[in-house]
Design a protein that fits this description.
Elements lengths: L1 H12 L4 E3 L11 E3 L2 H19 L6 H4 E5 L2 E4 L13 E2 L1 E3 L2 E9 L6 E2 L1 E2 L2 E6 L5 E6 L16 H5 L4 E2 L4 H6 L10
Parallel strand pairs: 3-7
Antiparallel strand pairs: 1-2, 3-4, 5-9, 6-7, 7-8, 10-11, 11-12
Helix pairs in contact: 1-2
Length: 183
C-alpha cells in the first residue's frame, strides 16, 4: 500500500519517472533509477504519513486492504495494476461503506462483479497424453446461487491449479448434468 501511494503521487508530478526510461534494445536493464530522487523522497515521506493515517501503520499488508469477496468468502487479495510492475494484474474497486477496503468479486447484491484482472491460468504439459492444469478465479458463472460461481477462488488465492478435464472419460467422470439442444 505504501509503494502504491508513493508511486501514484510521484507519477503525478514527474512525467517521465525513470532516470533511464525503457529501451527495447535493453529490455532487462530498463527502466532504471528515479529521474527525480529529491521529489521521490518527498513523496515517499508523504506516503508514509498517509498510509499510517489511513490504515494505522506504514507497513499495512496489501491483502488486508485488497480483498477477494464472494458471499461468505473473504480472502486476501493480491496482484496490482500493471503500472506498478505486478506480474499478476488485478484491480480492486472501492465499494460503498468500506472506504479503506477495496474488493474484487461480489460487491453489492445486485451489482456485477467488482474489480478485474488475470483470473484464468492454464498450464499445459505437451506430453503423451497431454496434461493440463488450470484455475478460473471468478468461477464458471456469474449466477451467485450456483456453487460454481466461486468454487475456484480459494484455489487461485492459494496459488494452486486443478486438473483440467481433457478426455471424454475425464469429463464423464465429473459430469454433474448433461445438456443437449432440442432435448
Amino acid at each position: 500500500m505504501l509503494f502504491q501511494r508513493f508511486w501514484d503521487e510521484y507519477r503525478r508530478e514527474v512525467r517521465q519517472p525513470y532516470a533511464d526510461k525503457w529501451d527495447a534494445n535493453h529490455p532487462t536493464d530498463t527502466p532504471r533509477g528515479l529521474a527525480a530522487p529529491d521529489i521521490a523522497l518527498e513523496h515517499l515521506a508523504e506516503a508514509v504519513k498517509w498510509t499510517t493515517a489511513t490504515y494505522g501503520a506504514a507497513d499495512v499488508v496489501w491483502g488486508a486492504v485488497n480483498r477477494y469477496r464472494f458471499g461468505d468468502l473473504d480472502l486476501p487479495g493480491e496482484g496490482a495494476s500493471g503500472q506498478l510492475g505486478a506480474y499478476r494484474v488485478q484491480q480492486f474497486d472501492q465499494v460503498a461503506g468500506s472506504p479503506h477496503v477495496s474488493i474484487s468479486g461480489w460487491a453489492e447484491k445486485d451489482r456485477q462483479l467488482a474489480g478485474f484482472g488475470d483470473g484464468w491460468i492454464l498450464l499445459v504439459h505437451f506430453t503423451q497424453p497431454v496434461q493440463a492444469f488450470s484455475v478460473l478465479a471468478y468461477g464458471q458463472t456469474t449466477d451467485r446461487t450456483s456453487p460454481h460461481s466461486r468454487d475456484q477462488i480459494k484455489i487461485f488465492v492459494n496459488h494452486s491449479l486443478r486438473p483440467a478435464l481433457y478426455t471424454a472419460a475425464e469429463i464423464r467422470a465429473h459430469l454433474e448434468r448433461e445438456y443437449r439442444p432440442r432435448q
